[in-house]
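Re: folding output
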Amino acid sequence: MQTEQDAEKIRTLGAPSDRVIRTGNMKYDQAASRGVPKEAGTLRTEIGLAPGERLMIAGSTHEGEEESVLDAYRIIADAIGPMKLLIAPRHLDRLGRVEELLTQKGMACVRKTALNRMRNERVILLDTLGELDQYYALADLVFVGGSLVPIGGHNVLEVAAHRRPVFFGPYMSNFKEIADQLKGSGGGWRFPAEKRWGCRWSG
């Protein structure tokens, strides 16, 4: 089992104590073994980041989260200056819905696969699979989705492995131990579900 709490629960259900072993979470090993396949300069060029321009990422977002992400992005960008936003919906079939939301908000966006036609859109939609982890390495701040809505959260270790600050909502039951450790160490911040984001930039 991952934690002693999990081990005690399985013993309570009748598992023999001598056959219950606490192994820890293997996601720590996965995060530690990951490398960035492309050089940072190449990645910055791919998404059109100018020298010194900051990047905010909203990864694995679900319905009901992007609106709060966009509100936070506007607040932060107004405070610190040029910054792009990369949104990676958890399910790619939601890309059209996210584009509609951006249009309603008056925010121009471009899909990552169409960047060669980009003018100066500030918001990029990641419409490919398997690339999000490497872009985390470029981010100045990251929000991990599935956590402002009752999904249970997604893997914040992918962000922590790149030593980037990670933000998440209150619904982190799938990664509770990891989220608590990050919050306790100062590497992660949790937002309450009932409040809009309010951010103060100090970096």
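--- second protein (sequence, then structure) ---
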Amino acid sequence: MTKPSQLLIPSTWTLPDELRMRLGTSVGRQRFMIAGKNHLIVAHYVPEHDEVQRRGILFWRDTSGEWRASNGDPGKVALMQHLDRYAKRIEDFDQLESKADSADDYLPILEGLAPIVRSTRNLLDVLEEARKAITEDRSLIDHRDRAYDLSRTADLLYEDAKNSMDVAMVRKADEQAQASHQMALASHRLNLLAAMFFPFATLGAIFGTTLTDNWSWSQTPIPFLLYLAAGLFIGVFLTTFVVKPSKQRRD
């Protein structure tokens, strides 16, 4: 029967059963394990923001001090190449961040960086633990230092993107507030014009019909003057009513 751990461990590896039994069908968290003189680093590939389950990669140091990687990378440089993949992804996000201009641009950057920030931080802890356990392997110091740089760079880039998105959102909100103010001002002006000229339109519609044809003074300038005076009076009254501030209700 195939053991669950064999789904992660290459078939060519002669990993001790003590380490095999500590691995399941999924990679789980990043960690460092020891069994005698065998050392195993369980790490994650560069994560994607929409990944439901992390993809795992194993680094095994056997009793002779030789490193092996489960993805087939050369043992001596496997860890460095693993870190290089993180560095490349962080650099890609750095370029995207430098071109971002709006909140919509920053959101996918933050979504992509968030799992990388966590993963590099955890990877740093794992490599630090491995460095303390394998004191004779000086290359782990370089890997640990590289992981520290990546973790710090990813963290700073995430904070910069988050701050820039906050600024972009504030700027967008200010632009929307100004646009709303301009719309409210234009609407207010239209209300004033309507209040001023609505009485003229109403009076003109009423007295411009045949209703006044039989009036004895309808052929004189008097009706027109009365029309202007009444329209102006009512218009001023309505305009004053429109611009009058509403009383605030007091508790």
